[in-house]
Amino acid sequence: MNVLIIKGSPHEKGTTSLLAKKFEEGARAAGHVVQEIDAAHMDIKSCLGCNYCRKNNGICVHNDDMADAYPMLSDADAIVFVTPLYYFGFTSQIKKVIDRFYAMNSELRAEAKMAYLLAAGADREDWAMEGISATFDVMCRYLRWENAGSVLALGCGSREEIKESKYLSQAEVLGRSV
Ligand SMILES: Cc1cc2nc3c(=O)[nH]c(=O)nc-3n(C[C@H](O)[C@H](O)[C@H](O)COP(=O)(O)O)c2cc1C
After folding, report:
1. Chain centroid to CA 17: how far?
2. Which of 47, 101, 41 is nearest to 69 (CA)?
3. Recorded GO terms, molecular function (predicted)?
4. Ligand 1 centre and the CA of 106: distance in Å?
């Protein structure tokens, strides 16, 4: 299967990059092909809501790195959203990619895909991931994708904290389960 990891952290070597790495190791060990979109380090512009794509066969008015990302999204059987928790939701970096799904909504909704969420935040309260979990779940329902699982790493504000946590092994196990 083709697995596409979409990373939304500005930190190339941060907390969530370790979650992504472990998931990738698991998925590769299970024989899957893994590709990656590093949203924060690519030229990806915000959706303008101009509806140009609706009048031009799904072609976006922006000419940026989403041109490479669109075929990867199309080819993926499983899509993994990896993000630090920013104000209890996705980072703006990964949200830009999600909003740009708009240009290929119909195609994406017609394709059976599995979706995964890997998130990390500094807070320890059990409600801290409620917002992002609910958003992810509703997004999956809209896209008609299977919400195939998540790792929600509470109390992980740094690399050191996540290294000592149970969450990296959870990400590896989830990757193997694809
Ligand atoms: C702008 C900003 C907003 C944040 N908001 C939250 C939050 O709402 N809840 C939380 O638990 N942690 C929050 N954090 C902490 C990060 O989610 C946490 O440090 C995470 O491990 C960073 O991951 P990274 O190293 O992969 O970027 C925030 C950090 C920043 C910079």
Report:
1. 12
2. 101
3. oxidoreductase activity
4. 33
| Amino acid type, 102 | Y
What is the CB < 6 Å shell around ligand 1? 9, 11, 14-17, 84-88, 120-123, 128, 156-157
Is 133 in a helix, a strand, or coil?
Answer: helix
- State how far the Cα of 14 lies from the Cα of 9, in Å rounded to an integer: 8
Cα 89–chain centre separation: 12
CATH of the domain at 75: 3.40.50.360
- Tens of pLDDT, residue by residue over 102-134, are 999 999 999 999 999 999 999 999 999 999 999
Main-chain dihedrals φ then ψ at residue 57, nearest 5 degrees:
50, 35
Which residues constitute the domain of residue 169?
A: 2-176
